[in-house]
Design brief:
Blueprint lengths: L2 E3 L1 E2 L2 E2 L3 E4 L3 E4 L5 E4 L4 E9 L6 E7 L3 E6 L10 E3 L1 E2 L6 E2 L2 H4 L2 H14 L3 H17 L2 H8 L2 H9 L6
Antiparallel strand pairs: 1-7, 2-3, 4-7, 4-10, 5-6, 7-8, 8-9, 11-12
Helix pairs in contact: 2-3
């Protein structure tokens, strides 16, 4: 019988990790994808499995494929992936799904990049992030964006929308 765990070997579900090995698998459309060493993944599940498999980690890799690594593969997990740490909150801790889901993570990263380099990096980073988010949005979401108070205020300030 499988038992779901919240943590094992110093890792917890919801943590972002970086792959130490090349990883392959099928995406949702049955296309074989291969990600290089350094790919990002999120720990989706940790389980204690029966037989020789022992502890198993289910990872969502680059948001495209899902792979399972278990003790039968030669764990400890640290042979296949490692925790990404953050000091976003002025205390070093693992980077988690909560951080990924928080827009302030990205605005803070752009701010810090601007502070540690030339200030224009902050604006450039924010532009790059908006373009990436825009590319993921549906046409309907893009239209809905126009009707947000923030978008209307910026467009008005630039004279694109006239009062």
């Amino acid at each position: 019988m499988n038992t779901e765990l919240q943590e094992a070997f110093g890792f917890k579900t919801g943590e972002v990790v970086q792959m130490l090995v090349e990883t392959s698998g099928l995406d949702a459309d049955d296309n074989e994808l291969t990600f290089p060493v350094g790919a990002l993944a999120i720990i989706d599940r940790i389980e204690r499995l029966g037989d020789r498999q022992g502890i198993a980690f289910t990872l969502a890799i680059e948001g495209k494929i899902v792979n399972v690594f278990d003790e039968g593969d030669g764990l400890p997990a640290k042979a296949f992936f490692y925790q990404i740490m953050t000091d976003k909150d002025d205390a070093e801790r693992p980077f988690t799904l909560s951080d990924v889901s928080d827009v302030d993570t990205y605005t803070h990263a752009a701010f810090v990049h601007g502070e540690v380099s030339e200030g224009d990096h902050e604006v450039g980073d924010l532009q790059d992030l908006l373009r990436a988010a825009w590319g993921l949005m549906t046409e309907e979401q893009r239209i809905d964006f126009l009707f947000t108070d923030e978008a209307k205020a910026v467009l008005s300030a630039a004279g694109i929308l006239k009062d």
